[in-house]
Specification:
Helix content is 66%, strand content 6%. The protein has 17 helices and six strands. α11 packs antiparallel against α15 and α14 crosses α15. The longest helix is centred in the middle third of the chain and has 35 residues.
């Protein structure tokens, strides 16, 4: 036990004292905070401009459609916002081409932002034309498109014999917001579906990156000891099984330490989120973190530990078989592909956590450490599936450690050519 503790302590302190550990621990919460705020800031910049109504309408429809579009751009209704900046030019089809050329020059001279063409068949057509300086602004185009749609609907209803005022009141309704609430197997699970979605995706991504990065650290540590011949000295005083266990536990402790610090840093960033949004002139939105009980939190931590142990054993076996970084890049591909395949499944499981694919993938031992925590943070998972997932991982970890310890025992002191699968099989039989 004393030797095991010495190896764990060495692996832990050797990594937490590095500048890279300190940098990544501080920088990662800031990065995630920036990733969260940047889309909101960009979205605030992409909101339709205040002078979106400062356009020219070339109305060749033969109806009052241009006037209806002007009102719709101002919010709809007779008492709508001021749209005096909207100019309406009523013309016939023969005059349309010349009017477009003249209005294009007006846009170039910044006398108007753009022009909208309402052709003679607009009431029956499904598209129209707009050209302007804001022609690439999705928000402006969406507002103009909505105004045209509302105006066309109003004109069709009036032509069908409805009262004009009644048409205006019916077609100027504001968009309706839906207050969504999730219901699981145990009943209502509260609001904040989009927050749960973001939290679950962030959790799955964090687990994926942590398992991959720290599994790589185990591989690099084994390879470095092998290249510097330190392994020869260490193995002479510490059994290989103890050395392997110490590496896995030591690096795992580093991972848990960093994740705890990441969570604390993320919570601090959330606390200062409102002042930052106010300083950047981003519209404030209420955001409540999903409530996670102690049992679920313990399960999330347990899945990370088990997943790390599983992949660390595999990466350690790979590191003991190779002699250079180039060989390691090739030899680790089967293990890396298992993680990549799991990452590919994150999106389908995130969208439909109750499907058969999600259930099978969250029980399969190589994808369970990432996909089961993803489901646990989204919906209530039956305890039978959680137990099955943990059991499959424990069995696979036992097999992986048994294989890795035997490969590690022989491969750690083997130099020269990278062994073939047949040679690795002989190592397992002899061990």
């Amino acid at each position: 036990m004393a030797r095991l503790w010495a190896v764990i302590k060495r692996e832990y302190l050797e990594r937490v004292r590095t500048k890279w550990f300190i940098f990544s621990t501080v920088f990662t919460p800031l990065l995630f905070g920036g990733i969260t705020l940047l889309p909101m800031w960009l979205a605030s910049k992409s909101i339709d401009t205040a002078d979106v109504a400062h356009i020219t309408i070339l109305d060749a429809s033969g109806t009052r459609l241009g006037e209806r579009v002007r009102l719709a751009l101002g919010g709809g209704g007779i008492q709508a916002a001021d749209t005096s900046a909207t100019q309406i030019i009523v013309l016939d089809t023969m005059q349309l081409a010349a009017a477009e050329s003249a209005t294009t020059r007006a846009v170039m001279a910044k006398e108007t932002r753009g022009y909208l063409v309402l052709g003679p068949h607009i009431l029956d057509a499904t598209e129209t034309r707009y050209a302007g300086r804001n022609g690439s602004s999705f928000a402006d185009l969406d507002r103009i498109k909505s105004a045209v749609r509302q105006a066309v609907l109003s004109e069709r209803l009036q032509q069908a014999g409805m009262d004009p005022e009644r048409v205006t009141s019916l077609t100027s309704a504001q968009p309706i917001d839906i207050d969504a609430e999730q219901i699981g197997d145990r009943g209502r699970e509260g609001k904040g579906g989009i927050v749960k979605y973001i939290f679950a995706f962030s959790l799955a991504f964090l687990l994926y990156m942590s398992i991959f990065i720290y599994g790589q650290n185990v591989l690099r540590g084994v390879l470095e000891e092998k290249q510097t011949r330190v392994a020869e000295v260490v193995v002479s005083s510490v059994p290989t099984d103890t050395l392997l266990a110490g590496k896995v536990l030591g690096v795992g402790a580093v991972g848990i330490t960093q994740q705890i610090l990441w969570v604390i840093g993320s919570l601090l960033i959330i606390k200062v989120r409102e002042p930052i949004m106010h300083a950047l002139h981003i519209p404030s939105t209420s955001m409540t973190l999903p409530s996670i009980g102690p049992a679920v939190l313990a399960l999330l931590l347990l899945f990370f530990v088990l997943g790390f142990m599983l992949y660390s054993a595999l990466f350690a076996a790979v590191g003991s078989m190779v002699n250079s970084d180039q060989e390691a890049q090739q030899a680790q591909q089967p293990v890396t592909l298992l993680l990549v395949a799991t990452a590919i499944l994150i999106q389908p499981v995130l969208l439909n956590p109750g499907t058969k694919l999600a259930k099978i993938a969250s029980i399969f031992p190589f994808s369970a450490p990432i996909l089961m925590p993803l489901r646990l943070s989204l919906v209530s998972v039956p305890w039978t599936e959680v137990v099955a997932s943990l059991a499959s991982m424990v069995v696979m970890i036992a097999i992986a450690i048994w294989l890795a310890s035997r490969i590690y025992r022989t491969g750690l002191l083997m130099y020269g050519k990278r062994p073939s699968f047949a040679e690795v099989a002989r190592w397992l039989r002899r061990s």
